[in-house]
Amino acid sequence: MSKRSFNAWLLSPAVLGASLLASSPALAELSASETGEAELTANTATTITSREGAVERPQEFAQVPVNPHAGGVGVQGNPAAGATSEVPVADLDAPGAEGQTLDQLNQYGREGRGRQKQSQVTSVSQLSDVQPTDWAFQALQSLVERYGCIAGYPDGTYKGNRALTRFEFAAGVNACLERITELINASTADLVTREDLAKMQRLMEEFGVELASLRGRVTVLEARTGELEANQFSTTTKLSGEAVFWPGDSLGDRAQFNVAGGPFGQDSDDPTQFYMGYRVRLNFDTSFTGKDRLRTRLQAVDIPNLSDFDLTNTLMARTGIDGQSDGVEIDDLHYRFPAFNDRAQFYIGANSLDLDDAMDILTPFNSSGTGAISRFGRRNPAIFRGPEGTGAIAKFGFGSEGQFKLNLGYLAGDAADAREGRGLFNGGNTGSAQFVFEPTDKLAFAVEYARKYFTDGDVNVAGGTGSWIADRPFGDNSTTSDNLGFQFNWRVANSFEFGGWFGATWANQKNGGDSDATILNWAVTLGFPDVLKEGDSGAIIVGMPPKVTSHDIAALENEDTSLHIETFYRFPFNEYISITPGAYIITNPGHNDSNDTIVVGTLRTTFQF
Predict the structure, then answer these.
(1) Which of 184, 391, 399, 509 pairs as cysteine with 411 (C-beta 3.0–4.6 A)?
(2) What is d(CA 571, CA 552) in angstroms, rounded to the nearest whole number?
(3) From CA 321, how far away is CA 431, in angstroms rounded?
């Protein structure tokens, strides 16, 4: 046997070790197949996140875990804290735990390579915290000067007394094995010595538990991948869903007095009865490239609209979800795809492409299934409600870490109607632009503008909130509005967020006159995520629903002021089921102090799968 063959044979334990290192995850998780995947997630050692830019990078289907709903179907859109559609497919837009684990190994292995030309450590004497008297000096000298591996940190230190993580050990040993392989392939005279292999073998034996744990994680991941492939709904389509049980009631007399735009009611002591409503959604999310998404949503809903004349007779009482569907309907049908190296996202929608898709909502309470329990408390109605449904959206990211975003959109409300005065461009429509600044992961600001046109008989300037006259300042006559909004959200601490919005609307009558009106609204939000249990969420929302502060017809101005005071607490039993008790108070309903205070309560239960 030649000397070269003999040395290659001696390397077989090292090659075996490299194979073990290439397959990662934890011996502690060998039992995961018995105790469940929640234990697997809890034992993940380290998470490395990066901000790829302004636009969220969708995940490739191959990386979607078996359980796609770590955060639920109703993720919301706070860039400072994390999300954005009412009922998103849980994890097309978030990396899976398996991908993170493997990415960590690769990242540790690559760490410092980009600096090699400028600050490559070629001698152990360059390590400021290693002395010739140290017991490991000669071993380090051999590894650094002969093989260029385990060379310390980029700042010129070795940190020999610091505890070694499993990932750092794996990355260091892997670097040495790669160098040994290079020497063999190059057939150089400076081949690996028997002593070097003995040192590596000793390290592998000393960290045998860690290597076995990495191998165990790979075994678990392979089992989960096999289960996913065997039981997948489709190779290109993911199915997710949400079911909401919405029991509720309101207390207080019907609002009798309205300035205009709404009916005057007779006195009635608490006209509403306790009710039980529901909403069910099924999302079919299809990807053709791994980064795009075609969403098709089926929905059925039956929850009373508390603003009806024979109930509270005020738009301010509306809940976060209400209305009735005609059986099962197609609620969403739109397609999105990335561009410009994933720093932009484009949307094309045929149905239910909405303004909260076109622009980011910073408040964490936008989700109808898990967020605020009132219609007003979910988002700024001056900006995020209006003609919508069909159109196109473009979202761009700027800055080295994606601190800036520019969102543009055009949406039409009755694009499928071919009659005169309707259609994609002549019917009700909204043009929008938004600029978002996110200086840190915990703080974000946004300024937005929307130009809206409402056709005759389909006017809701205030988005179905506020006073009747704020929603229809000129009755059912066609109206245009220029809307300006500002919002922010600040994650002050792990369990406390502070945010809010301000909205101003300048409306102009387009049919039957030329009157103008000014409508204002605002809100302050306090959020308490993970306050009692991981995944829970408490909230306090205080604001003024849309109010007519100026009108060419002075008698149509709202002289009094209503306040909206809301509180709720979302308690998750697990990642699939949550319950949200909550209530909101409306003082001076309709911005009229002649109306008695109304209280609305609910015990919303949400199932996500």
Answers:
(1) 391
(2) 48
(3) 25
Give the model confidence (pLDDT) of 330-388 as tens digits. 999 999 999 998 899 999 999 999 999 999 999 999 999 999 999 999 999 999 999 99
Reduce the DSSP state of residue 135 to 3 states and report it: coil
- CA–CA separation, 597 and 410 (whole Å): 39
Q: 329, 388, 385: which is closest to 353 by C-alpha? A: 388
Residue 155 burial by Cβ neighbours in a 10 Å radius (0-12, 13-18, 19+): exposed
Q: Which residues contact 512 (CB under 8 A, 6 or more apart)?
A: 474, 475, 477
**The tokens of 30 are what?**
């060998």
- For 6, the token pair is 């003999």
Count Cα atoms within 13 angstroms, Cβ side, for 109: 19
Q: Return the structure tokens found at 105.
A: 């190994």
Rg over alpha carbons for the chain, rounded to the nearest Å, is 30
Q: 404-412 and 429-440: which strand pairing?
A: antiparallel
Burial 254-273, CB ≥16 within 10 A → b, else e: bbbebbbbbeebeeeeebbe
Q: Are 109 and 171 in contact (CB under 8 A)?
A: yes
Cα 551 to chain center, whole Å?
40
Query: What are the residues whose beta carbons fall under 8 Å from the beta carbon of 271, sequence distance 6 or more?
Result: 253, 254, 310, 311, 312
Distance CA(386)–CA(497), nearest Å, equals 28
Is the pTM higher than 0.90? The answer reads no
H/E/C letters for each residue in 284-324? EEECCCCCCEEEEEEEEEEECCCCCCCCCCCHHHCECCCEE
Q: Which residues contact 89 (CB under 8 A, 6 or more apart)?
A: 68, 73, 238, 240, 283, 285, 293, 295
Whole-number Å distance between alpha carbons of 319 and 598? 13
Token digits for 362?
A: 């910073």
Place of tokens 């998470």: 47
